[in-house]
Write a structure and sequence with these properties.
heterodimer, A: 284 residues, mainly alpha, B: 282 residues, Rossmann fold, 4-stranded antiparallel β-sheet, 8 helices
Chain lengths: 284, 282
């Protein structure tokens, strides 16, 4: 089912709970104390802003305490399933994450080879760059109807939107990484007669892996943002649907809890790519 | 005896079995925004099998361009370069190079840097043979214990040892050295000279060496012949000096030989007076 009617009741104050800035972790000296202090400060800032927003908005915006209670009740029993319109938040998250991983994975399978070709071969870059530049700024949601027309199923269309969304940052960063291979590395490969396959596996990919992962990290970040919007359109199951469904039931505390949860999951996804990027990094 | 070809017209390729590398009327012109720049003009050099030839000259005289053309990384605008009678067309491990900045791939261990080159150069070898070849050459340059380290964990001298091992391990017909020790301190440089000469005399498969340098002592210590380049633009071969010092050479004893003093004097005179650098007072 598709929720096509979108009635906007502006609640600017909702913005106050958006992205929680992650502290830069550094495990040196008495780093743990510093981290705890930073976390406490950012929690205090967040709650302060929230209280201020709640004071302005009145009863319509639940305060931190009420929301935390709801948040707790949602996460203690995440996987209950009482029919299509009442599923635990864990099921919603897992469904959304599954769509994001499938769409992102398919996107990366296209985007990385495409980026390598564009970065390594000038004619390919010239031919494909205009296409990328035209399609990249298109709102991911504009692809949703195309997905519906192609697949006749809202969940598949959602994955399709994530797929399209995941392409661009990975393509662009991969192409940039590959095209910036230093002449020294290229000359080594030429002088020692590396085959094309060896050049790709032993020079191009290791050199551009940090760039590829930067692209993938950006792609994943956007995909996680887009999934919520796409599922609001698609309905059924998923965090986006959960948010929209809560709005229809006028349960703002559930929406705020979901926002908190979406933020935390997004942060964790970002951390994973950060760890991967550090693994791939090499010292020149 | 090695003969330098400097005749004005193109020669029929010599039927000399000992001739490995020949530059015949080689010229190089680069297009620039301010019109064409002729870097090299009418260069004739021939290198015989087993010879160690040093190219010396001021910066900008096109030494590295000459070396890159042998490697196949650059093409002459006019003239031809031939390796064992065949014109040089593209790069290949039969002309392995040691680069000035080491040029090891930073994401690989020293061993893998050598192994990948061996793997490319000897497709017919089995994996065990390639591994054995790799380890043998790492051992020869004294890198056995550091083989598993990545370039950033190695000192400049050790990086260049790895690069020397990589170049010798592929058995090039001509080994190309592009100011390989220019960035190293004097002691490290001396140690690398010993490594290079030991490899050169040990490994009978790599007999011929062409080295670019701007270090007069290095050229005398290592080379059989020294080709002194004139200054650019339109640089060419200025003079060729035979180094008739007996081998093996002892770096400390050598400096007391009258022949050494003569050679050094001659080279310094050529470089400071005859082919002076453009900078005033050089």
């Amino acid at each position: 089912m598709i929720h096509a009617s979108v009635s906007l009741r502006g609640r600017r104050a909702f913005g106050a709970t958006s992205p929680v800035e992650s502290p830069r972790f550094s495990f040196r000296g008495s780093a743990l104390a510093v981290i705890l202090l930073e976390l406490m400060v950012s929690a205090a800032v967040l709650i302060g802003l929230w209280l201020a927003a709640a004071a302005v908005a009145g009863k319509d915006l639940p305060g931190p305490l009420q929301t935390l209670g709801t948040f707790w009740s949602l996460i203690v029993n995440p996987f209950y399933d009482k029919g299509p319109n009442d599923k635990g938040v864990g099921i919603q998250l897992v469904t959304s994450l599954g769509r994001v991983f499938v769409g992102f994975g398919l996107g990366a399978m296209i985007a990385i080879p495409l980026g390598v070709i564009m970065g390594a071969w000038e004619p390919a870059r010239k031919a494909l760059n205009p296409v990328v530049q035209i399609l990249r700024p298109v709102s991911p949601l504009a692809w949703f109807p195309i997905g519906l027309a192609a697949f006749h199923a809202a969940p598949t269309a959602t994955v399709f939107v994530i797929f399209i969304t995941s392409l661009w940052p990975t393509v662009i960063n991969t192409a940039f990484g590959v095209s910036s291979i230093p002449n020294d590395h290229r000359q080594v490969a030429r002088v020692f007669g590396f085959s094309r396959a060896k050049y790709v596996r032993k020079v191009i990919l290791p050199y551009s892996l940090p760039h590829i992962l930067t692209g993938a990290r950006l792609s994943m970040g956007i995909a996680w943002m887009v999934i919520v919007a796409a599922e609001m359109l698609a309905g059924g199951v998923g965090v986006g649907f959960f948010v929209w469904d809560s709005w229809n039931a006028l349960k703002v505390d559930r929406i705020l809890s979901a926002i908190l949860l979406i933020g935390i999951v997004g942060l964790l996804l970002d951390r994973v790519f950060d760890v991967l990027a550090r693994r791939a990094a090499y010292e020149a | 005896m090695a003969v330098l070809l400097r005749e004005p017209q193109l020669q029929v390729p010599t039927q000399d079995d000992h001739l490995v590398l020949a530059f015949q009327a080689v010229g190089k012109t680069f297009p620039t925004t301010r019109g064409p720049y002729e870097a090299l003009r009418d260069v004739w050099i021939s290198v015989r099998r087993g010879e160690f030839v040093a190219l010396i000259g001021h910066s900008g005289c096109g030494k590295t361009t000459l070396l890159n053309m042998v490697a196949g990384l650059d093409e002459p605008t006019v003239g031809a370069i031939s390796l064992e009678g065949e014109p040089v067309q593209k790069p290949g491990p039969d002309r392995a190079m040691v680069f000035q900045n080491y040029s090891l791939l930073p994401w690989m261990t020293a061993r893998d840097n050598v192994f990948e080159a061996v793997d490319s150069a000897f497709p017919a070898y089995g994996r065990a043979e390639k591994a054995e070849q790799t380890d043998r050459f790492l051992e020869l340059v004294g890198l056995r214990d550091a083989a598993h380290k990545r370039p950033h964990q190695l000192s400049g001298g050790m990086k260049q040892r790895a690069a020397v091992a990589r170049a010798f391990a592929v058995h090039p017909k001509v080994l190309l050295l592009d100011e390989p020790f220019g960035a190293l301190d004097a002691l490290t440089k001396g140690a690398l000279h010993e490594v290079l000469l030991a490899m050169w005399s040990l490994d009978r498969k790599t007999e011929t060496v062409l080295m670019v340098t701007h270090d007069v002592d290095e050229a005398i210590y290592l080379a059989d012949r020294i080709v002194v380049m004139t200054n650019g633009p339109s640089a060419s071969v200025g003079q060729v000096i035979e180094v008739n010092l007996p081998r093996p050479r002892d770096k400390r004893a050598m400096v007391h030989l009258p022949a050494y003093a003569d050679l050094k004097d001659q080279l310094l005179y050529l470089l400071t007076e005859t082919y002076r650098g453009q900078e005033a007072g050089e």
